[in-house]
Amino acid sequence: MYEAEVGDDVFNEDPTVNEFQEFAADMLGFEAALFVLSGVMGNQLCLKTHTQPHDEVICDAESHIFYYESGSPAVLSGLQLFPVFTPDGILTPESVTPAIRPIEAYYMPRTKVLAVENTHNRRMGKVYPLEKLDKLGDFAKEKGIKFHLDGARVWNAAVKLGVEPKTITSKFDSVSCCLSKGLGAPIGSVIAGSKDFIKEAFRFRKAWGGGTRQLGILAAAGMYALKNNISRLADDHSNASMLAEEIANMPQFEINPAQVETNILIFKHNKKSPAEVISECESKGLRFSPGPIGTVRAITHLDVDKNDVIEAVKILKGI
User: Fold this and answer.
1) What domains lie within the chain, and their CATH numbers?
2) What pLDDT digit, counting tens, does each position of 283-298 carry?
């Protein structure tokens, strides 16, 4: 980061940013890419670029776009979200079809985007099977709906499936991916799409205060993350599975280790509230975050090794 050659990214003159964006676009299988400051900014720029006010976006009822983005679709883009309830967080043509508005119904919002989250945060890092993604992508195209991927952890999905990221993103019109989280960059996400799409998203990014000057210091960290920290995500998956198996053996907790596919696990205490569990653990040097209602969430990442998991198990046994 310190040695990065920088310029003015507002004028597309930062060479490190430009190099990063070309590299990321190729990795994800798109014509162009754009560095953005956060995952929320990435998702919201994609939705904004695909739509007009009064349009509607279909998403899973447990999705990050619906739960954790501060109502941004309504405020920033004048959009309505149509959350679809599924038993496992995996959208299908069958579950989505009832949510599509009739074109002739002028009194309804227009269905413009189908958004998928992979891996799925609130579903314990669940990965979409490739055949289901392909089928959903073909369905969206058939219906004339833009297909967007909230791929904050698409890198984890790729490692889990043993494929390149572009294999997962091939059916999508746009994608937003995080460079922080498991990849370890301090700041940033990247969105990708067609050249025209990214040109328009660049304009909206500026309007939302996302135009920056010597951005190369951050893009350099993102480049390092993409080149060096993807394959090691397998370690995070292994550590998460190990922790889940240990928690499953503790009678005071409930978890299904078979549901832990990547680096997220969600569990609960039989008697204590999540706040109590989190507070007791933090007092002993172990930090968790709240999960879906009534649960605790744990994440493994590049700052957590096997010895840390062993220490976490010791602390949890005393809760």
Assistant:
1) 9-228 (3.40.640.10), 233-317 (3.90.1150.10)
2) 999 999 999 999 999 9
